[in-house]
Design brief:
CATH superfamily of the largest domain: ATPase, nucleotide binding domain
Largest sheet: 5 strands, mixed
Radius of gyration: 20 Å
Order of helices and strands: EEEHEHEHEEEHHHHHEHEH
CATH architecture of the largest domain: 2-Layer Sandwich
Distance between the termini: 24 Å
Strand order of the largest sheet: 3-2-1-4-5
Number of helices: 10
Bound molecules: 5'-O-[(R)-(carboxyoxy)(hydroxy)phosphoryl]adenosine, zinc ion
CATH class of the largest domain: Alpha Beta
Strand content: 15-25%
Length: 357
C-alpha cells in the first residue's frame, strides 16, 4: 500500500510517498530558515510559507518517482498537534486532493508519526501479512517497547504494543527537551534551531564545567522538567561578564554541561521506565532531539548494558519533522483501524492527543 503523506505542523513543509509503512519511495522537505532571525518559529510566517511551498514540494516528490497522485493508494496528513494555521495548510490541501481524486485520506497525530519513524527503511517492521521474500523477521522482543519522544514541542514516554497501539506513561511538566536546546542556543546567541548548534559546541566543551540541576530525578516519576535547567543556565549567562560570555570556551562549556544534563536525565528516566515495565525489552528513541549523536550513543550504550534492543531512526532526516513518518504512522493505523480513513474534510486540531491506546 503506497501512501502520499503531508506534514505541515510546524516549520517544515514535507511530502513523502511510503510503501507499507517502511519503504520510503520519496521524501521531500522544505525547512523554513526564515525563522532563524526571530530566534524561534513565527506562526504567521510559517503558515504563509507552507501555503507558498506545498505545491512545489508535492511536485518534486511526484517527479522523483515519475508518478502522479493516481499511482498512490491513499493520502495521509498531520491533523495535530501543531500550529493551527500551519496545520490548516496541510489538512486543507490534502482534503481537497482527497475529494478530487477521490482517495482515502488518513488523519495522523504528529507524535504517532514520530513513534512510527523507527520503522522507516526497516522492512522487518512491516505487517506480517505483506512481508515478503527476503525480508528479515522482526527480532524477538522488539515489542512491547518503550518509546522516548524528544522533540521541540514534546518530551514523552510511551509504552507501545506496536505502532498503532500506544500508551503515554510520562511527559514533561513544562518545557520540552528540544525547546530547552533552542532556548540555551538563544541565550548564547547561537541561532535557531538550537539543537544542532548547541550539540556542535558541546563537542568542544567540558560537560562538568557547570553544575546544573537534574529536576524530578529523585521523585519516583517518569515525567520530565527542563525549565529549572533553562533558568540555571540563564543565571550562569547573566552572572558572567559580557566580554566572557562571547568566549569560545564559555559557550562550549555551557553547551557541554547542558547536553550532559539531558543525557543524565534521559538515562535515569529510561532506567526507571524499564524497571516499571520489565516486559519491554526494546527502547525506541525518536523526535528531533534524537538526531543528537551524543544522546544516541549514550542511550545505545545504556541499552547494551541493560540487554535491551535499541532503535532510533535509520537516518537523521527521519528524526526531525518529515512526511515519511506520517506515511508510516498512517499505514500502521490503517492496518489496525481501517475506519480512520476518510473521503471528506480532515480538520486541523492543534491540541490533538493520541486517541487510540
Ligand atoms: O521533531 P522536531 O523536528 O519538531 C517538533 O515536533 O517539535 O524537533 C525539533 C527540535 C528542535 O527543538 C531542535 O532544536 C531539536 O529538535 N534538534 C536537536 C538536534 N537536531 C534537532 N536537538 C539536539 N541535538 C540535535 N542534533
Ligand atoms: Zn515533530
Amino acid at each position: 500500500m503506497k501512501i502520499l503523506a503531508f506534514e505541515t505542523s510546524c516549520d517544515d513543509t514535507g511530502v513523502a510517498i511510503v510503501e507499507n509503512g517502511t519503504r520510503v519511495l520519496a521524501n521531500v522537505k522544505h525547512s523554513q530558515v526564515e525563522h532563524s532571525v526571530w530566534g524561534g518559529v513565527v506562526p504567521e510566517i510559517a503558515a504563509r510559507l507552507h501555503a507558498e511551498r506545498w505545491r512545489t514540494v508535492l511536485k518534486e516528490c511526484l517527479a522523483q518517482l515519475s508518478c502522479t497522485i493516481d499511482d498512490v493508494d491513499a493520502l495521509a496528513v498531520t491533523a495535530g498537534p501543531g500550529l493551527q494555521t500551519s496545520l490548516l495548510v496541510g489538512t486543507t490541501a490534502a482534503s481537497f486532493l482527497s475529494l478530487l481524486t477521490p482517495k482515502k485520506l488518513i488523519p495522523v497525530q504528529h507524535i504517532a508519526g514520530h513513534i512510527a519513524s523507527v520503522a522507516l527503511e526497516r522492512p522487518e517492521f512491516q505487517n506480517p501479512s505483506v512481508r515478503h521474500g527476503g525480508h528479515l523477521p522482526l527480532q524477538r522482543g522488539a515489542f512491547p517497547a518503550l518509546t522516548l519522544v524528544a522533540s521541540g514541542g514534546h518530551t514523552e514516554f510511551y509504552r507501545i504494543e506496536d505502532f498503532a497501539h500506544v500508551q503515554k506513561v510520562g511527559q514533561t511538566i513544562d518545557d520540552a527537551s528540544g525547546e530547552a536546546f533552542d532556548k540555551v542556543a538563544k541565550m548564547l546567541k547561537l541561532g535557531y534551531p538550537g539543537g544542532p548548534l548547541v550539540s556542535a559546541q558541546a563537542e568542544k566543551g567540558d560537560g562538568t564545567a557547570f553544575d546544573l540541576p537534574r529536576p524530578l530525578l529523585a521523585k519516583d516519576s517518569l515525567d520530565f522538567s527542563f525549565s529549572g535547567v533553562k533558568a540555571a543556565i540563564y543565571r550562569i549567562v547573566a552572572e558572567t561578564a559580557p566580554s566572557q560570555r562571547q568566549s569560545e570556551k564559555f559557550i562550549a562549556d555551557v553547551c557541554a554541561s547542558f547536553e550532559q544534563c539531558v543525557v543524565d536525565i534521559f538515562l535515569k528516566k529510561l532506567d526507571r521506565a524499564l524497571d516499571r515495565f520489565p516486559e519491554c525489552r526494546a527502547v525506541h528513541f525518536v523526535g528531533g532531539v534524537s538526531a543528537n549523536k551524543r544522546l544516541r550513543a549514550e542511550i545505545e550504550k545504556f541499552c547494551e548494558k541493560n540487554n535491551v534492543q535499541f532503535y532510533t531512526t535509520k537516518k537523521f532526516e527521519y528524526s526531525t519533522d518529515n512526511a515519511a513518518m506520517i506515511g508510516a504512522a498512517a499505514y500502521f493505523a490503517y492496518q489496525k483501524h481501517p475506519d480512520i480513513a476518510q473521503v471528506q474534510f480532515v480538520d486541523a486540531n492543534p491540541g490533538l492527543g493520541i486517541v487510540r491506546e
